Amino acid sequence: MQTCVAAATFCISALCTAVSGRAEGDYTFARIVTTFGTVEALGIPSISRCGMTAGSIMLEGQPGVSQRAVFYSDGSSFDLVSSLQSPLKSLNRRVVISDAGHVTFWSADGSGEAIHLASVHRPGLTAIALEGDFETMAPYGDPSVNQAGRVAFGAARSPVKRGMYIGDGEEIEVVAETMSPGKFYSYPSINAHGRVAYRCHYPSGAVAVFLSRPGPDELIAFTDFPPFVELFYPAVNTNNQVAFCAVVDYGFGLLTGVYRGTGSNVIPLVESGGSYAEIGRAVSVNRFGNVAFWARLADGSTSGVFTGYDPVLHKVICTGDALDGSTVVDLTFESSRGLNDRGQIVFRAQLADGRSGVYRADPPHSNCPADIDGDGWVGQSDIGILIACMGVDDGGDVNCDGVTDQSDLGIVLEAYGAECP
């Protein structure tokens, strides 16, 4: 695994240069689903590395009864992964899809709570955790799934025994567990290696972000240690980098920002106080360390989805922009899996014509799968990443079959030396 990490790290600077040079208007947008016809409401979507999107949805049913479901889409149409009928009490807003097409979600019906695992490639549901095995799962944040179908979730086994767990439908693994009153774990993000980034709340009110590992988990950030005042939902990428949004205090007032790194080296990527007046609570991070997040600009009225410190160069879309035959009046980006390795971003928008929709933003070259590092060319760095990941993980998976193998190498060699359209 270390050789793959090294190859990916080698190409970070080239990819960041490409992202930093991206000008306003370079993204194209694909409609995934809108509140039109039988669709009444939409949750927070996520995206796989091949551009497949999944999320929660509410469909018009019988008079006074709505049908809650989980959908997936490749951008041309949407289908239901699982349909859950009334008397369903609830379905979580943030549905997570893995790079291999696994989908996980929390729901509650007349028989109690459950965390399910589904697949866009085959019918059926797998029960990961059920009420009875756990007292409650709802207050601990939405579950997360990796490409192996392993689901990370927070839950309580009893009023005092709470933890962070990983399940695959057959067994439950303990990531962290406590009997301390007032202490609990929430909002997991799991990567391809099964490492989980999560929040830990202490009885004192302090909050920490950890990354699981063999032995003691790695402390990433802690509100008892300056400058952090408040920590929000973490996200972890394949290279074990953790990104998170936070409130910080350097001694001259509170700022909000996006941070990324490991326990020994956390750096600020963007902070409020300049071009940005406010940074949101959720961030997504891909294999190359690039991030996507919501922010409000210094004018106080414009908000949008961005990928870096410059609101012009790093703009994806903002309120007031044209989209889908209308104009954006509000934007939501709250997923830890809203950005993929190709730079595609999925978000929710409220339009001036009354529709709400899930949309995918496609950057330049996202339709050029052989360009693994996203710099606009198919060259040595792409081959380097592919060879390092060959048979190890899906970091060089060009044809989206879930593995890096000779077929992917053939595609890259055929396109070698070409500039992506």
Structure description:
The structure is a single chain. By secondary structure, the chain is mostly beta strands. The chain is built from 4 helices and 32 strands. It has helices at residues 2-10, 12-20, 380-389, 406-415; strands at residues 28-34, 39-42, 46-47, 53-60, 66-73, 78-84, 90-91, 96-97, 102-109, 112-119, 126-130, 144-145, 151-156, 162-167, 172-178, 184-190, 196-201, 207-211, 218-222, 228-231, 235-236, 242-249, 254-262, 265-271, 276-285, 291-297, 303-306, 315-318, 322-323, 326-332, 345-351, 356-362. The strands form 7 sheets. A 5-stranded antiparallel β-sheet has the order 1-32-31-30-29, with no helix packed on it. Strands 2, 3, 4, 5 and 6 form a 5-stranded antiparallel β-sheet that branches. Strands 7, 8, 9, 10 and 11 form a 5-stranded antiparallel β-sheet that branches. A hairpin with a 4-residue loop joins β8 and β9 (102-109). The longest helix has 10 residues, at 380-389.
- Helical fraction: under 10%
- How much strand? 35-45%
Q: How are the strands of the largest sheet arranged?
A: 1-32-31-30-29
Mean pLDDT level: 86
The helix tally amounts to 4
Shape: globular
Major β-sheet annotation:
5 strands, antiparallel
Unreliable spans: 1-25
- Kindly state the number of beta strands: 32
Q: Give the oligomer, counting copies of the same chain as homo and different chains as hetero.
A: single chain
Question: Termini separation (Å)?
Answer: 32 Å
Radius of gyration: 21 Å
Helix/sheet category:
mainly beta
